[in-house]
């Protein structure tokens, strides 16, 4: 998100999901789309049926990669050298969009400078992709009128995640593939309402609508509206919090609403120590998660079908979801819980309904300015920015102007992965999701059908590697990293390149995140989940 | 009871669907024909989105830790205790010693309220959620 925000001025998907159908070239990167975004994958396949070309950048031979016209199977963490090489080819063959660069962007000279220093053979060596394939992909992407880029966590979950994103934005601007319908740069959001949580200011540095906390004007506006004084220092990010906060100012208390850091956050041992070290921990959730088990107070929350409210999908579509049934027993909606606590702490909150809360949001958040509940009843939502009551919403962004004015080229250099494989830990482990499960599995694992399909955590390994280690499909193994070890069941798969492994993080029996690294991207604070060095051995327990 | 329009609670595609309700229980799901993303289609997770709603593991009462075990308690006791403890930490150590995690599983309105509560009542910007994860 930070990457797109600096280059374009807004960190959300530039287009709608359906626009993919009309694209001529679709470049998918670091997204196992058929698994994580099934509907997006459908649109991509529809487009391919109609003649669109598909380029996939992924270290794995995923299902979508097998359908690609060109699959650039890069080594994990080498997006930047690959993209710089692609851009160099585009420059060499004069496929850039001069007019667009001239009229709509800035900092192009610095970009050129960097590109002219790119050595294509060296790039081929670093990425493990043949120079010919790179050139072919470059021509395909640059020559089409309507090319679009989709990326997911495979791009952002690296120490260089923000730089990766900027590189994709650079590519789009170099070729002018961003200002119109059917062409743009689309980060796919992994979860139900991640987009909405960001939009609503559940961020350490931003009020609702990405209005920076550091800006005194913004603080003044919210102070007047809320009748209070507000803190100026930006807060801690999720990983800083679950790892206990800064040494001199350890966190003493935490309030966790519907999250399960005990399975989702990197270096789990450290998360456990810091949560246990708190004076006071409150968790509100629908099930007794691994995190809730550590809490001092656990509150029973309502699930999505038991309350009314809006959620925002990946394409910025704000939609209304209606209450269908009552929560079980004494469970209550999180909205009610927050109001009760706030009132007890001396700042009364008494909203009659979510509709009334939304009216306040509209007044204070320009991009949500016209998204009133009554407008959402008769439709499947409005896409922000939607500035006032009569505004129809915005299917694609940056039409005549980037949100920040000019699009800014941000030249980036290769950042090698923090923890490369070595003799002791010869494999690179990549983490992600499986089709039938979701995130930490609290919900999907309680669904009979989904659990029937898949109820164990597998580690994918290339058959040749397994042969060398004398391991057979289905055997119990133990994966070790510098931070700990976790048991898995072995699954042989030719999706992987040799030397690379893949596992999910849905199952508490195999808490993959014991292994992963906490080193995060300096700007977006997104952990390096996608690669860490590990060793594999037979599990004798 | 008529089918209730709702949104699939899993991935960021945000498929529109209808929940079928019988005797106060959600018994099934059907995709929306007119929804721009679903177009009369859902993936396997969406088709089974209702299956966990009435699971017997659902939490139904507040729990408070006493002598190292979580025991059922009343809402009033739980909420009073939370308010008292958070206020105490704030007064003794300062606002920045409290951290809040919001959720991608909650609605916009709830996320809005939680950040408002964190910034006003707790007096800190220590609020984040799992977008980075
Ligand atoms: S039905 Fe599948 S594709 Fe649609 S929102 Fe749910 S999980 Fe995503």
Describe it for me?
The complex is a heterodimer of chains A (541) and B (133). Chain A has 541 residues and is an alpha/beta fold. In chain A, helix 5 packs antiparallel against helix 8. Chain A is 31% helix and 17% strand. Chain A has a 6-stranded mixed beta barrel with strand order 16-20-17-19-18-21. A 5-stranded parallel sheet of chain A has the order 3-2-1-5-6. Chain B has 2 domains: 4-47, N-terminal domain of TfIIb, CATH 2.20.25.90; 75-132, no CATH class. Chain B is 29% helix and 24% strand. Chain B has 3 helices and 7 strands. In chain B, the strands form 3 sheets. In chain B, strands 1-2-3 form a 3-stranded antiparallel sheet, with no helix packed on it. A two-stranded antiparallel ribbon of chain B has the order 4-5. In chain B, strands 6-7 form a two-stranded parallel sheet. In chain B, 57% of the residues are buried. The mean pLDDT of chain B is 88. The chains are: A alpha/beta (541), B alpha+beta (133). Chains A and B meet through helix 3, helix 12, helix 14, strand 9 and strand 10 of A and strand 1, strand 2, helix 1, strand 4 and helix 2 of B. Strand 11 of chain A pairs antiparallel with strand 4 of chain B, so a sheet runs across the interface. Bound molecules: iron/sulfur cluster.
